[in-house]
Structures are given as C-alpha cells and as structure tokens.
Amino acid sequence: MRVRIIFNLKNKGSYVPFHHQYLLAQLIKGIILKGKNPQYKDFSFYNFSGLKGQTKISRNGLHFYSSKVTLVFSCADQEFVNYFLKNLFELTQIEIGNLSLQPDSVELEQKPVLVEAMKYICISPIVLLTPNFYDDQGKKFINPETDQFSDLLYETTMNRMEQSGMFTAEQLTSFFKFQFVPDKDYLFKIKDTQKKFARIYPLYDQDVKYEIRGYTLPFTLYAAPEVQQFLFTHGMGLYAHKGFGMLDIANSDPSQRTTAYSFE
Asked: What is the DSSP annotation of 91-123?
C-alpha cells in the first residue's frame, strides 16, 4: 500500500537540499525507533519519495512556497504503516533541512492494476551498485540500454523478494522473465547531457557517508505482475528504505488515485 502524508508548511520559502532523501531516511528511522517496538527495529521493507510541493530552485536547494508538502510512503505491511503513522502524528512539528512541517493528514493511493508490461517514471533515483568506503565502485556508470543494467536490477529484485519472505522458492523460480527497457526517445534527447539522468548522490549507512550513482529516467519493465507489484510497493534497486528507487506509473493522473486514510 502507498499513502501520501501531507504536512502543513509553517515557513514558506524555506529549503532542503536538491537530494534530501538522506534527511528523510534519518527522520523515518528515528520515528520507527521512537515507537520502541522491537519487531520493527531493523525493518527495511518500505520505500518513500522526496518531498513534493510548489518549489523554486536556488543554489541552496529546493525552496518550498506551497502551504502543503507531501511525502509518498509505501509498504506492503499495513500494521507497520499504521505504526509508523501513529508515531509520526504524535509529533506536533518536525524539521527537515530548513523546513518546519506539521503533520496534517494522510491519503491512501488506490492500488493500480499491474500487468506484464508496465511503463514507469522514477520518483527517486534507482541505485544499482553497493558502494565501498575505499573505492568508487558505487559511482560506476552503467549504460541503461545494456543487458548488464537489466541483469543487475533482476538480481537485486530477486534477492529482495526472497528476503521479504513473501514468496516461495517455486514462485521466485517462476519469475525468470525480467527486462528493463529505457525510453529511447528520452535518452536520445539528452544523449549529450548524461549527468541529467545519472547523478552522484550521498548515502549514509551506519553513520558513514558514501557516494552512489542513481538513475532517473522513464522505462518499460517486462516482468510478472507479482514482480511489478513488489517493485511498485517496495521500490526498485538498492537502498529503497533510504528513499531510492520509488516508481510511479507513466502517464497517470495522481490526483485521481487517493482516498482519505485512517490509521487510528
């Protein structure tokens, strides 16, 4: 399930860094630990977007000028979602970067019908490689049009699906069909500006800062509907629980896909 958490922005014009997933990851982890439920201490099968609202860009980052700011949060475990929201809404004010936010309400996104061929856009960057502290492995560029790119995503996806405990060994074996196909028109338009869809981002893990390469581009994925659903809910690639790899369906109208959500 995917929910949209809506905040009141108390200081219009304030800003966050362009890529602020690490700030959100720290906040979310803190809220999870705040609830003091040992069951969720190391839980990581969730995904989230960056903050959304009316923004303007400066060299400091993204300045927000809307009265409301939205965060998309996604997880298949409804009990965990309710636990997280309950602890979040116990806070009267939170700070993210320079933003002063007040939790306001929650909307539930309708569950889409996912088939074997789906066109997606990236709400947050997809990460393929695990970084090392002592080299630049995590920053290596891999062409999205190559089999290597698709194969790495497949391996990551199958590993995460196995770790989730949601699928049997027989099911995992049956999910052999998997092909990532980037939008060729999009790549052609920006072929001379590669960095626009493949940038270097900060990642904090165990209090250590790493640098990783993330890819943000439209694509079509050919895979079983169960695989599509897992990725739509849990994110694609590595470090989904740190805000990477969130997807949305291309050419959809997000404003038509929500209802009020109660987590009491």
From this structure: -S-EEETTEEEEEEEEEEEPPPP--SEEEEEES
C-alpha pair distances (Å), 205 with each of 39, 74, 84, 139, 212 = 21, 21, 21, 16, 12
pTM: 0.92
Q: Are strands 117-122 and 247-249 parallel, antiparallel or unpaired?
A: antiparallel
The number of residues in the chain equals 264
155 shares a domain with 33: no
pLDDT in tens, 206-241: 889 999 999 999 999 999 999 999 999 999 999 999
**141 plus 44 within the same structural domain:** no
51, 70 Cβ separation under 8 angstroms: yes
Specify the CATH number for the domain of residue 188.
3.30.70.1900
- In this structure, the strands spanning 198-205 and 247-249 are unpaired
Q: Are residues 245 and 121 in the same domain?
A: yes
Do 240 and 211 belong together in one domain? yes
Range of the domain at 44: 2-111+253-260
Q: pLDDT by residue (tens digit) across 136-188? A: 889 999 999 999 999 999 999 999 999 999 999 999 999 999 999 999 988 88
